[in-house]
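lol forgot to send this yesterday, sorry. C-alpha cells for the thing we talked abt
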C-alpha cells in the first residue's frame, strides 16, 4: 500500500495527494485512512454484513472467509485488527463506495468482470467460486442443474441464478423466490423446495451455520466461474502489495485454514482445479 512512503511524507499536500490516490478521505468516520504505521490511523474495508461464512456481522463481531482474508491482507499492509473499520457494502453500492472514498478496498464476494473494471480496479482473485446447488444431506437425485426438471428451486429475489438454470439446463424447473438465502434453506428444511442455487462458497457458508449444520450438502458440480477480487479505487497503486499478501496467505496455509474453518460441518470441497488462485503482480 506504499504505507511507509505515506507515513514518512513530510508535507501535507503530498500526504493528501497520496490519500486521494488510495481512495480519498471522503466519508471517513475516524482519522486518516492510510499509513498503518502511524498510531490512530485506520483502513476502511467493505464487506457484506449478511452472508454467513463470508461476511457476517453479529453484534460487534465480524466473521467469514472474506473477513479473514481482509484481516490477513490488512496486517501484511501494516494494519492491526483494531485499525480496521469494516463498512457494510451491499452489491449495488460497491462501485460508488469506492469512487466516493467511502471505503479503501472491498472484500465482498466481488466478482471480477470486464464491465466493473471500467470503473474500479481489482487485486486478486483470492477465490474462484462457481454457481452450484445446495440440497438436503440425504438427497441422491440431484447431482447437477440438469436434474432439476420438475423440482422446486429457490433463489433470492432479484437474483438471476435460478433463471439461468431454467434457461440453460432445466426448462421445467419450478422457480421460487425468497427475500434471502436463509429463507430458502428454511423452506428446504420444511420440504417446500428441493434445492437452492447461488455461488458454491455462499451456499457452504450458509449451511455451516449452527442451526443448519449437517443437514445440507453442496452438490459439488459448479457450472460457472466467479473470480472474487479485492475491489479498489480506479488508478490505485496497491495491487502488487495486495496480491503479494494473498500469495503469502496461500503459501503459509492460512488461506485453506480460513476456508475450512468457515465451511466446517458441510459436505463441501472447493474446486481444486481453480483454487487457490495465483494473483499476479498487477491489477486483475
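and heres what i got for the seq, position by position
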Amino acid at each position: 500500500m506504499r504505507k511507509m512512503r505515506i507515513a514518512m511524507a513530510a508535507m501535507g499536500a503530498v500526504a493528501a495527494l497520496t490519500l486521494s490516490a488510495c481512495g480519498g478521505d471522503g466519508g471517513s468516520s475516524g482519522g486518516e485512512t492510510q499509513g498503518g504505521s502511524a498510531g490512530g490511523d485506520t483502513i476502511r474495508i467493505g464487506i457484506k454484513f449478511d452472508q454467513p461464512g463470508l461476511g457476517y456481522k453479529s453484534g460487534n463481531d465480524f466473521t467469514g472467509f472474506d473477513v479473514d482474508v481482509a484481516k490477513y491482507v490488512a496486517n501484511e499492509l501494516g494494519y492491526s485488527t483494531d485499525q480496521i473499520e469494516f463498512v457494510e457494502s451491499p452489491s449495488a453500492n460497491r462501485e460508488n463506495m469506492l469512487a466516493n472514498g467511502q471505503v479503501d478496498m472491498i472484500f465482498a464476494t466481488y466478482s471480477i468482470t470486464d464491465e466493473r473494471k471500467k470503473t474500479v480496479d481489482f487485486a486478486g482473485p483470492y477465490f474462484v467460486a462457481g454457481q452450484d446447488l445446495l440440497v438436503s444431506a440425504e438427497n441422491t437425485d440431484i447431482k447437477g442443474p440438469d436434474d432439476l426438471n420438475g423440482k422446486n428451486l429457490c433463489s433470492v429475489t432479484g437474483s438471476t441464478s435460478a433463471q439461468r438454470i431454467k434457461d440453460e439446463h432445466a426448462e421445467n424447473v419450478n422457480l421460487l423466490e425468497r427475500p434471502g438465502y436463509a429463507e430458502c434453506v428454511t423452506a428446504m428444511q420444511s420440504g417446500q423446495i428441493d434445492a437452492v442455487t447461488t455461488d458454491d462458497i455462499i451456499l457452504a457458508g450458509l449451511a455451516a451455520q449452527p442451526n443448519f449444520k449437517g443437514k445440507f450438502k453442496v452438490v459439488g458440480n459448479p457450472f460457472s466461474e466467479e473470480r472474487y477480487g479485492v475491489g479498489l479505487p480506479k488508478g490505485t497503486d496497491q495491487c502488487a502489495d495486495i496480491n503479494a499478501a494473498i500469495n503469502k496467505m496461500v503459501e503459509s496455509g492460512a488461506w485453506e485454514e480460513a476456508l475450512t474453518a468457515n465451511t466446517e460441518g458441510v459436505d463441501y470441497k472447493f474446486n481444486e482445479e481453480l483454487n487457490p488462485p495465483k494473483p499476479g503482480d498487477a491489477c486483475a
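The chain is about 30% helix and 20% strand. anyway ping me if u want another try
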